[in-house]
Design brief:
With about 90 residues, the chain is of the alpha+beta class. It is about 25% helix and about 20% strand.
């Protein structure tokens, strides 16, 4: 668990193949966390996002990248996930 400002954290310092994004819910933070994690996650790996809603900043950003990353919503929850098996670029 990361405490502090995730937009200033060096994700290359940790070894991980799964991450759960549930920090700042504003567009800038969700984008920063997602792109940083996509750059450093071991492939294959898993990303999960909490507080997904179609109309909030989490949902807006995930819809923007959904053509490049297969993102799935877990029905009747506010969770989304993606199996990451390739290098991602935006």
């Amino acid at each position: 668990q990361l405490f502090g400002d995730s937009t200033k954290y060096d994700f290359s310092e940790i070894d991980f193949s799964m991450a759960f994004i549930d920090g700042g819910h504003d567009y800038r933070t969700v984008k920063s966390d997602t792109l940083n994690l996509l750059r450093h996650i071991h492939k294959p790996g898993w990303l999960f996002w909490h507080d997904y809603d179609v109309t909030n900043d989490v949902g807006i950003f995930l819809r923007e990248i959904s053509s490049k990353l297969n993102i799935r919503w877990i029905k009747n929850t506010r969770l989304c996930f993606s199996y990451v098996d390739h290098k991602f670029s935006m």
